[in-house]
Amino acid sequence: MIKLYELLKSIDIIDMKNEKNVDVTGIAYNSKNVTPGDIFVCIKGYKTDGHKYIFSAISNGAVAIVVEDFQEGWDIPQIKVSNSRYALAALSDYFYGCPSKKLKMIGITATNGKTTTTFMTNSILEAYGIETGVIGTVSIKIGNNIIPSQLTTPESLDLHRYLHSMNKEGISHVAMEVSSSALELSRVGNVEFDIVAFNNISREHIDLHGSFENYFDSKASLIRNASEKQWAILNLDCPYSASLVNQTKAKTLTFGIENNTGDLWCRDIDLSTGRAKFIVEVRKEFKVDDIVYKPTMFDIELSTPGYHSVYNAMVAIMAGLLCGVPIPVIQKGINQFKGVERRFEIIFEDEFKIIDDHFANPGNINITLETLQKMKYNNLKLVYAIRGNRGPIVNKENAQMIAKWAPKLDMNEIIVTLSKSHVTEKDRVQDEELIAFQRVMSEQGIKVHLYEELSDAIEYALSGIGNDDVLMLAGCQGMDYGAKIALEILSRLKPYIDTKVLFRPLEKRVAGME
Ligand SMILES: CC(=O)N[C@H]1[C@@H](OP(=O)(O)OP(=O)(O)OC[C@H]2O[C@@H](n3ccc(=O)[nH]c3=O)[C@H](O)[C@@H]2O)O[C@H](CO)[C@@H](O)[C@@H]1O[C@H](C)C(=O)N[C@@H](C)C(=O)N[C@H](CCC(=O)O)C(=O)O
């Protein structure tokens, strides 16, 4: 509990109405979540306006309200501010005892790979015996406690509350995904980062930001607003990330694969096995607190494939160095990271491989198929589940991306399923979408094998699989659905193809961790 006037020291107030120094027991930004004693912060949102729900908030026991415009008809204290989202972040931070100040905060932004990078960073820190927290798309990890996530980056109130719980659990380091939406909507307001990273940017989320320039500006604010106390990790191969080198007060640590003029250079990359290997060369001396990193070289072997993994790993490795983790521990820790669920996840590996990928959008499909192309294998069997809820435009763009890669992958047939028995009404693929998909494939000379049921499609693929082939489960989502079916069919066919599950039994799979 805190006195209202004490709590209000954390924000800039324009004016107050019905002044009274009430006791405040909590904060809420949704009237439905108000409990007696809370201060309710009214946010003008995209869909509705929190000022409309004051009655509901007071009925639930709100003792004060934060507003952008004074409201008539209420006798509890009203605090007028210029921006409620800023106020929510500042109030939450203060209420929970400024938790981020007591933690080593690592904030990672990128269009692709935020989740993987945070879990890779976590793996490095854990290998050094550090108590860690992770905040991101898949889950919130507070020590051994895993909470499913609602958003990539939580609303500021929830974020500061999670950080407070981490303080209480004795956690010292937090690897956190920072989305552009979160930066735009002040969800990371008042979070004191120690290390921030900008890895890549491509066209996405333009709907929210209005233009690519606005999207970049939101992401860039993580770096541009960093202070001289912070470290910024920047990727010189991404022109947008590189452009921020001179736009921040933070100490910068730069890297590249193509560009070797940065502090670290990543070279001799081998992607042929599905487990990326490379050499990291520290090219310039740098000092972190008492540790001096002299120019040196070390090998890295990941358990994950592809160039994108290498970029993600570089950010995680550099975060590890900036946290003082010794190089041999970094090598071990990053190798222990087995990948994030359904992000090019190898669910079976023996005479052939089964890989599960969410195949969500053209950008992700591009990376996935490029990764596949870099691997050595015999034949590719692609089982692609078309889903209606992606919308006809995305479905068409996905088809075009598959068609673009088909010749490079020697792929002249595709196994397609609509998974009719597992979808809700909104997920149903419209006939026109399927026709559009088939047209794109036939223009490329790709034969489409269409199955109504995913299990039939997978069985067809597995019955013809040979040594060193790859079965790619593309977009076969939902409760381990495609992966589970594939492994069940495999165990049924086992006596005939004599294989065993080596890589990771399904029941052991936990998001981002082994
Ligand atoms: C576009 C966006 O980010 N919207 C977020 C925003 O919603 P909004 O502004 O539309 O809020 P609103 O529904 O208009 O409501 C306004 C206010 O009235 C309140 N309200 C509403 C109804 C009611 O009965 N009582 C009440 O008090 C709401 O709690 C809110 O405070 O503020 C809400 C409260 O914090 C968020 O839940 C919501 O995230 C939505 C669910 C969402 O899907 N966001 C996605 C786009 C997102 O943020 N994604 C990124 C990842 C993508 C990336 O990489 O950028 C993420 O970080 O997860």
TrEMBL record:
NCBIfam families: murE. It is found in: Cytoplasm. It comes from Alkalithermobacter paradoxus. Gene3D superfamilies: Mur ligase, C-terminal domain, Mur-like, catalytic domain, MurE/MurF, N-terminal domain. Residues 24-96 form the Mur ligase N-terminal catalytic domain. One of its GO terms (molecular function) is UDP-N-acetylmuramoylalanyl-D-glutamate-2,6-diaminopimelate ligase activity. One of its GO terms (cellular component) is cytoplasm. Belongs to the MurCDEF family. MurE subfamily. Residues 108-319 form the Mur ligase central domain. Keywords: Cell cycle, Cell division, Cell shape, Cell wall biogenesis/degradation, Ligase, Peptidoglycan synthesis. Its main location: cytoplasm. InterPro entries: Mur-like_cat_sf, Mur_ligase_C, Mur_ligase_C_dom_sf, Mur_ligase_cen, Mur_ligase_N, MurE/MurF_N, UDP-N-AcMur-Glu-dNH2Pim_ligase. Pathway: Cell wall biogenesis; peptidoglycan biosynthesis. This is UDP-N-acetylmuramoyl-L-alanyl-D-glutamate--2, 6-diaminopimelate ligase. Pfam families: Mur_ligase (PF01225), Mur_ligase_C (PF02875), Mur_ligase_M (PF08245). It is an enzyme of class 6 (ligase). Transmembrane segments: none annotated. Residues 342-475 form the Mur ligase C-terminal domain. GO terms for biological process: cell division; cell wall organization; peptidoglycan biosynthetic process; regulation of cell shape. Its EC number is 6.3.2.13. The keyword Cell cycle applies.
